[in-house]
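Quick one, tokens below:
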């Protein structure tokens, strides 16, 4: 009987030890799983940090040169006419950014060395492209072309390919079919400083005609729609200019291959609410307007009460209004300006003494005066 009790107790003890071992084994397995989980989490975190660093590096590009920003008295900018010319899009969505003219960009580093536009290309001139607040990419530019005593520098496309994020690239454009429609912004850099910003819109249009050869079109909108200019021509004449494109898939139903559209236009100038001048010619001018692509149209003026053109220096003090009549638009486009002391009074956005944001200054240099469309 005693022997039986001993055996029973031994069996119970073994069972108890088995349960303890099982529990212990389960805890060990769970601990190992937790360690693996922590390890994986750490690896995932490291991967996220690495990706963030890579994206941050992509967004900033090179650190940039330290430039001597006291080289010129005036703050740098991009001329407005070069912005509207250099930012262009094709119907297929390929959007180009080049040919900009920058003003007052230092050609000396902070240490006094002369910038070498070739060897310093990676750190000198850049444009960073954003869609909304999302960084897309950046482009490097050649700064070898300067003029007007070094006060103007061209943002030209580099003559050779360069490395961006470890890959050889070339060109200065994006594909809007991939980046999509929306509000875009170009930030212009010289060395390590962002000195100018240019916002605009890329819109996507859809053709509902199932038989059409083109089903979608991309267009840019923004300042092209809202501004015109007065220019001091080399001849001394006063020239008025504006921008036109069209957004029709088939402007000529009889010829599907003809994408240009003929548009008649005329201009009148009033001084103190009285007829003063009009465009040259005996009838309306005709513009060959391109599909999606903005192009300039311009004219000189002739007086309405006597022979002769208007010279830039002939403008006398007063309040002026320009009426631009375009075929297909119900009412004329109106632009107001004034002359004081025989000089055109610039709009606030162009007046360096009144503009409060140098990164959005409308730069007209001394020969372009920009006019805002009255809405």
């Amino acid at each position: 009987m005693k022997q039986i009790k001993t055996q029973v107790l031994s069996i119970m003890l073994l069972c108890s030890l088995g349960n303890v071992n099982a529990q212990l084994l389960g805890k060990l397995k769970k601990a190992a799983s937790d360690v693996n989980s922590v390890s994986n989490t750490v690896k995932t975190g490291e991967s996220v940090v690495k990706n963030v660093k890579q994206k941050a590096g992509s967004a900033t590009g090179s650190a940039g040169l330290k430039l001597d920003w006291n080289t010129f008295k005036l703050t740098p900018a991009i001329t407005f006419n070069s912005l509207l010319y250099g930012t262009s899009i094709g119907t297929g969505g390929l959007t180009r950014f080049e040919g900009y003219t920058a003003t007052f960009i230092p050609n000396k580093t902070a240490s006094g060395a002369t910038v070498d536009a070739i060897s310093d290309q990676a750190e000198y001139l850049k444009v960073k492209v954003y869609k909304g607040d999302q960084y897309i990419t950046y482009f490097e530019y050649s700064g070898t072309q300067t003029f007007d005593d070094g006060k103007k520098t061209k943002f030209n496309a580099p003559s050779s390919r360069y490395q961006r994020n470890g890959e050889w690239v070339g060109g200065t454009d994006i594909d809007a079919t991939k980046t999509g429609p929306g509000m875009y912004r170009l930030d212009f850099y010289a060395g390590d400083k962002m000195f100018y910003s240019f916002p605009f819109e890329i819109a996507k249009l859809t053709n509902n005609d199932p038989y059409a050869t083109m089903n979608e079109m991309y267009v840019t909108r923004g300042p092209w729609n809202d501004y015109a200019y007065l220019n001091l021509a080399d001849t001394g004449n006063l020239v008025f200019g504006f921008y036109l494109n069209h957004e029709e898939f088939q402007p000529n139903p009889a010829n599907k291959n003809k994408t240009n559209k003929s548009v008649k236009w005329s201009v009148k100038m009033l001084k103190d609410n009285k007829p003063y001048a009009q465009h040259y010619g005996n009838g309306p001018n005709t513009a060959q307007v391109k599909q999606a692509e903005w192009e300039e149209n311009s004219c000189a003026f002739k007086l309405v009460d006597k022979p002769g053109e208007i010279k830039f220096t002939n403008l006398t003090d007063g309040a002026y209004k320009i009426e631009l009549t375009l075929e297909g638009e119900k009412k004329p486009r109106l632009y107001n300006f004034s002359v004081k002391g025989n000089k055109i009074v610039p709009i606030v956005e162009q007046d360096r003494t009144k503009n409060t944001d140098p990164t959005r200054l409308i730069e007209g240099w001394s020969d372009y005066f920009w006019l805002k469309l009255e809405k």
